[in-house]
Amino acid sequence: MRKHTNFGIGVGLRVPHLSHILERKPVVDWFEIISENYMTGGGRPLAVLDRILEQYRVIQHGVSLYFGSSGPLNRTHLRDLKQLIKRTRTPWVTDHLCWGSIDGRYTHDLLPMPYTMEAARHTARKIRQAQDFLEVPVAVENVSSYAAFHISRMSEWEFLNEVVEQADCGILLDVNNVYVSSRNHDFDPRLYINAIEPQRVMQIHLAGHSRFEKYILDSHDHPVIEPVWQLYQLAIERCGPTPTLLEWDDRIPSFEEVHTEALKAARYMPESAMVRQ
Amino acid sequence: MRFTQVQRQMAAALMQRLGPGDRLARRSATGHDVDVAAIIKPNSLLSARERLEIYSRAYWFRLLDAIRDDFPGLAAVLGQRAFEGLARAYLADCPSRSYTLRDLGSRLARWLAAHPEYGARNPRLAIDMARLEWAHIVAFDGPAGKVLDPEHLLELKPGLRLGLQPYISLLELQYPVDEMRVAINTSGHAPRRVVDQTRIHLAVHRAGLSVYYRRLTLPESRLLRSLRAGWPVEEAIGRCFRDSSGESEEMLAKLRAWFAAWSEFGWLTVREANGERSRP
Predict the structure, then answer these.
(1) How far is CA B107 from CA A55, A128, B95, B113, B204, in A?
(2) Chain B residues 155-214 with a CB less than 8 Å from chain A
(3) Could you tell me if B74 and B132 are in contact, meaning their C-beta atoms sit under 8 angstroms apart?
(4) Confidence band (pLDDT; 50, 70, 90) for B31?
(5) Domain parsing of chain B, residue ranges
(6) What is the CATH number of the domain that holds A216?
(7) Residue contact B40–A104, C-beta within 8 A
(8) How large is the ipTM?
(9) A1 falls within a domain
């Protein structure tokens, strides 16, 4: 697995920022797109994407492959995804370590896995199939969660390690999700970061969240809080320079504000990891 | 319990319709309740049901938002309250079967035709609007075929078959929902009086990157439908003018104008080999 150590800091490509980006052409190391938003076949979304691709590197991030769903992979989805990969030439693709569909019905959510060996084997097999078909490395993202199952027999990080080892794939480490889940399930987030295999971490996500009375919600609508930056620092210390992206999906501020927040990650990256403009 | 069973039970519980106050319903519509506590662990702050409720509310709110975004005209025609009721009933009957939320409303018009009780005072108008708004989505980002070179048309070999861009929808409507949708876009609400017109033929298409509504005459619509169905051009033309008693020069002028406009819009495509007639 080839790790890209000098990809720098990216920003999620979001509709409210498109005209700013296309007109002003800000200097950004790379953009992350939500793959499914561009798997429509034609029209404005792909035309806009083509203009972005003329100027920027793009990494694809998916939200509905559902490696952890008990059914098989959706072949149509994979074919559409591969077509988009040819267009973007993304060096790797990511999706989530979760489930979200059952018996052909889609929840469009990132639902937590039961942490069992049976589920790990099944999930790893599907990731391998996807990786073979797509012909690019796949990295799976840890999701934030609000529920835990009686049948689970291991911790989330043990499950993640088991899956990526069996699948021989990468990890998209979302440090905000680690933090959110640590609060919702009462574990030490540093234990999680320290437990994962650093060589497998291909990308890192950062985001803000919302605090409610009885739980924390991964809402992507705030700046990154200090404890999450501290976890990020730990992750960079362990994993070395790693492509990092800030997600901001709700109550989206100006592009400049989002980019400025993302660039704070540079404080924790060695100089050599930053893209020279 | 195997993880497949856990997923099936959790999905059944979180996809069941929300109860009063948008809380997780105590009893499902089918009466088959999932024993949530048997699959989900509580923690010190939240019961198993409360934990599941976080997911259930997220599921419903996400899908309702998506339907609201895709069908603003239908919401304006029905009123927000009736639309909310329709959306919840539709999603309960027709959960998403696509990996993308973009397809969520693909069955709405057909479902509404089977459930006119959700169409408020004018179900036919609601169905027309739902059809238009789904066609709008298809025109916005649907795939395009290879545009026919106009030179190809000059040859007009016997048996030539043409295709029509897959992003174009040809609608036959009873109400002027095209004009209403434009008015709703501008003013945010539906016109108070709606005139019932008999048979509007409409093409919902895109030019450049924008969606357009183009009214068609009956023969023009008939010809486009015949071409899409795979009839050879000369037979399609015959079908289009089958009820017409006009002069042949007049028909020829119409044909020229239509083909010129369709070529300009890039509507006509090369039909793949073996492109036989798909339906009579």
Answers:
(1) 38, 34, 10, 10, 18
(2) 167, 206, 209
(3) no
(4) low
(5) 71-270
(6) 3.20.20.150
(7) no
(8) 0.94
(9) no
